[in-house]
Design brief:
Layout: H1 2-18, H2 23-28, H3 31-35, E1 38-40, E2 43-48, E3 59-64, H4 65-85, H5 109-119, H6 127-137, H7 143-152, H8 158-161, H9 169-182, H10 186-189, H11 195-204, H12 211-221, H13 233-239, H14 244-265, H15 274-283, H16 293-299, H17 306-310, H18 313-321, E4 327-332, E5 336-341
Antiparallel strand pairs: 1-2, 2-3, 4-5
Helix pairs in contact: 1-4, 1-5, 7-9, 9-14, 12-14, 13-14, 15-16
Length: about 350
C-alpha cells in the first residue's frame, strides 16, 4: 500500500507544484470531473468546481498526454486497488478522485507532499511557495500573459477577476504553455545554496551553470513573448558560454509553441484553409521563427464549448443569411429535403 500511496502523492504534487494550483483543488477533485476532462491540442483540461478557496471560479489546469496517461492509470488500475484493499463500503470515497490508504478522500495534501519529499530526500516546497515563484516569474511578462496565468492560478483579486469571463480550455492551454516557459529551472530557485554550493559557484563561473538554471536566468531579462526577439549570442554567452546554443534553441522552441497556439486560437471552431492561416501569420509581421501554415492546418482540431460556438458572430451571421459554407439543402430520396455536407468536417467542428 505504501508504494500505491506514493503514486497518489506524486499526482497531487503535479497539480499543486507543477501546475501551481491550491491544495484544495487536489483535495476536492472528483471522479466526475476527471471523466469530464476536455481534450485540447494534445492536452486535456480538467475543471474542479468546489475547491473551498476564496476564489469562486472553477479551477482549471491542462495536462500533457503523458500526465493524462499517469492520472488515467491511477484511476483505472490503482484507485480500484485502494477501494478493494479492505472492502470499501459503498460511497465511502464520496466520489473524490484521490483516496487515502483508509479508502476515504485525502485529508491534507500538504502533509502528503511532505511525505513525498521526505521519501526522496527533497527539500520541502509548499503550495504557497510554488505559486509565489510562479507569480514572481510572471512579473516581466506582457499583460496578456499575466492575465492568462492569473486565470490559470484562479486568483481571487479584482484585477484577475475581470479576465475570468474568458476562461476557456483554449486559454487554459495557452497559460499552461506560458507556465512551461517560465518554470524552467524553477526547482533550482527553490533550493537554498550551502556554503559548498556558493564556493563552487564563485569558482566555476557561468560555464558550469546548469542549463535549466541558465535558461531560467535568461528568461528574467528576456521573457518569451509572441513578438519578442531571440536573445543575442552575447547575452546568452554572458549567462553561460557552455550552454549558449542550448539556450538559443530552447528559447526559440518555447516561442514557437506559444506562436502556434496563438494562431490555433484564432481558428478554434472551423477548419481554416492553409491560405487563410498563412495570411493571418503574415499579418503578424514575424520575420523569423515563423510557424508553418500547412503544419497548423494538419494539426488543427476544434476547441471551445458548443455553447460558445452557437453564439458566435459567424453562426449568427449564417443564421441571418441562411448561407452555410460546407452545408446545403438537397432532395433526399424517400425523405424529402434535408441538410447535406459538401465537404468533410472534423468531430466538434
Amino acid at each position: 500500500m505504501s508504494e500505491i500511496m506514493h503514486v497518489v502523492y506524486y499526482l497531487q504534487a503535479i497539480i499543486i507544484l507543477k501546475h501551481a494550483q491550491r491544495v484544495g483543488v487536489a483535495k476536492s477533485m472528483t471522479v466526475e470531473e476527471w471523466l469530464a476532462r476536455k481534450p485540447v491540442k494534445e492536452h486535456c483540461v480538467v475543471g474542479v468546481k468546489e475547491h473551498k478557496t476564496a476564489a469562486q471560479e472553477v479551477a482549471m489546469f491542462a495536462l500533457t498526454q503523458e500526465e493524462e496517461m499517469w492520472f488515467d492509470i491511477y484511476y483505472t488500475r490503482i484507485r480500484p486497488q485502494i477501494l478493494r484493499s479492505k472492502g470499501c463500503k459503498e460511497d465511502l470515497d464520496q466520489g473524490k478522485f484521490f483516496l487515502s490508504s483508509r479508502e476515504t478522500p485525502i485529508y491534507n495534501p500538504s502533509n502528503d507532499l511532505a511525505r513525498l519529499h521526505t521519501k526522496y530526500g527533497i527539500k520541502p516546497v509548499s503550495s504557497q511557495e510554488a505559486r509565489r515563484l510562479t507569480e514572481t516569474a510572471m512579473k516581466t511578462r506582457v499583460d496578456v500573459d499575466k492575465a492568462l496565468v492569473a486565470d490559470y492560478l484562479t486568483h481571487s483579486n479584482a484585477t484577475a477577476e475581470k479576465h475570468y469571463r474568458m476562461k476557456t480550455p483554449a486559454n487554459i492551454l495557452t497559460a499552461r504553455l506560458i507556465l512551461d516557459s517560465v518554470q524552467a529551472g524553477s526547482s533550482n530557485d527553490s533550493e537554498q545554496e550551502t556554503p559548498c554550493d556558493e564556493a563552487r559557484a564563485s569558482t566555476s563561473g557561468s560555464t558550469q551553470m546548469d542549463v535549466h538554471a541558465a535558461f531560467d536566468k535568461l528568461l528574467q531579462d528576456h521573457p518569451i513573448s509572441l513578438d519578442g526577439e531571440v536573445p543575442s549570442k552575447a547575452a546568452r554567452t554572458a549567462i553561460s558560454e557552455k550552454h549558449q546554443r542550448q539556450l538559443y534553441e530552447r528559447w526559440l522552441k518555447a516561442q514557437m509553441k506559444l506562436r502556434v497556439q496563438h494562431v490555433l486560437d484564432q481558428f478554434s471552431r472551423r477548419l481554416p484553409t492553409e491560405a487563410r492561416v498563412q495570411a493571418w501569420i503574415t499579418s503578424k509581421g514575424w520575420k523569423s521563427n515563423i510557424p508553418s501554415a500547412s503544419k497548423i492546418v494538419q494539426d488543427w482540431k476544434p476547441t471551445g464549448s458548443l455553447e460558445d460556438a452557437v453564439r458566435s458572430d459567424r453562426v449568427v451571421k449564417c443564421i441571418k443569411s441562411q448561407k452555410w459554407t460546407g452545408l446545403a439543402i438537397s432532395e433526399i430520396e424517400g425523405k424529402n429535403r434535408g441538410v447535406v455536407t459538401t465537404r468533410d468536417f472534423l468531430p466538434g467542428e
